[in-house]
Amino acid sequence: MDRRHFLGAACALAGGAVLASRRQAEPEFFTRLPATHSVIPVVGDGKWIWTEPPKNQTGYLEPRSYDLNIGVELQGEGSATGIEASTPVPVAHPEQAIDDVQIDAENCQAKIQTLGEGAAQLVLAAPGIVRGQIVRAVARYRLTLKKQYLAFERDQFPAEQPEPPVEIRKLYLHDSPGIQTSSPLVRKLSAALRAESSQVHPWDLATKFYSWGREHIEPKRGPFIGVVNALRRRTGDCEELAGVFVALCRSIGIPARLVWVPNHNWAEFYLTNDAGQGHWIPAHTSCYSWFGWTGVHELVIQKGDRLSVPYEAKLQRLIADWGQWSGKKPKMRFIADLKPLPPDGQTDDAGPGARSKHESGEWKLAGDHPMQRYMRSG
């Protein structure tokens, strides 16, 4: 069912009077971007967080099961019509399996809507709400998250790369909101770094860009200021550091994209190996110091940074929590709880990594596991 039919079905429940009321009232909106500001150095414990990659195995390793409840709840403060709301939800990736998902909906219709290959949102629609009424939709997931070590090395990839597939070129070689690949400042820096290097192999250049950001961008938490401002000010948090890396890679023809997890993000760049297989290669540009691998179980909320969202006229870098109504503004709460589960057949230690989304939009560590000190919080 497409979005117009879905929302139309919800509004039809209210009858013609509600539809007429909605046409007369000017809709109001709520939008809040998730927090993505973690620049906290993380010390690995060697078990839950690797300090180095494994020596005798490769692949997507050490699967861990999680329960995730994520959704939207509205409480009426008075009469309102045309209720719509959405929140970002995860999709499957090689390192993240969606084992099961069920949607609980109360006084609304709800569905999961994909937004390109790396993103989705839970969308609810209700014809109206009155004082004291609850409208709620919660997606309940069972996930399997894995660490990633595929033993990527420079010599697996030819120096002369074939042209990437059309969709990858379209999405991951151009400007994105706040990632100004075509900026003269970005082009000048990438040319200078390329000239400094005796190697023009794409792996070497990606490594150079990765190291430059970590050495020259001073960690500073705050709202996203964009790649150009980060280069001018030489400050930024995880979002700026990852954005600078992505912009530099794209400026010389290496596809790259952002990866979003609770309160944090990093980058991936795309190379084709000698066998003609394309690979997205992780580059943790802040917090964790990993290049080519991922040594922790993280919930991936979104991959990519150039998304078309139904309620926005322009392309978006990051999916926001969003709501719309006409009339008295309802109380709006965005829910997210991530809980690790013990291994199959066991009831002992499930490990650290539980998180809950607060009213501010930040995901905070939850529970009292002793290894939580090795995890990011905020």
Descriptive labels:
378 residues; alpha+beta; Immunoglobulin-like; C8orf32 fold; five-stranded antiparallel β-sheet; 18 strands
What report would you give on this structure?
By secondary structure, the protein is an alpha+beta fold. The chain has two domains: 3-38 and 66-145 and 311-369, Immunoglobulin-like; 151-291, C8orf32 fold. 20% of the residues lie in helices and 34% in strands. It is built from seven helices and 18 strands. A hairpin with a 2-residue loop joins strand 10 and strand 11. The radius of gyration is 22 Å and the shape is globular.
Count of individual domains: 2
Tell me the strand percentage band: 25-35%
Give me the secondary-structure category.
alpha+beta
Shape: globular
Tell me the major beta sheet.
7 strands, antiparallel
Q: Alpha-carbon distance between the termini?
A: 37 Å
Q: Could you say what the CATH architecture of the largest domain is?
A: Sandwich
Using the CA coordinates, give the radius of gyration. 22 Å
Order of helices and strands: HHEEEEEEEHHHEHEHEEEEEEEEE
CATH topology of the largest domain: Immunoglobulin-like
Total strands: 18
Q: Point out poorly predicted stretches.
A: 1-24
* Name of the CATH class of the largest domain: Mainly Beta
How confident is the prediction overall: mean pLDDT? 91
Give the helix proportion (percent range). Answer: 10-25%
- Number of helical segments with 4 or more residues: 7
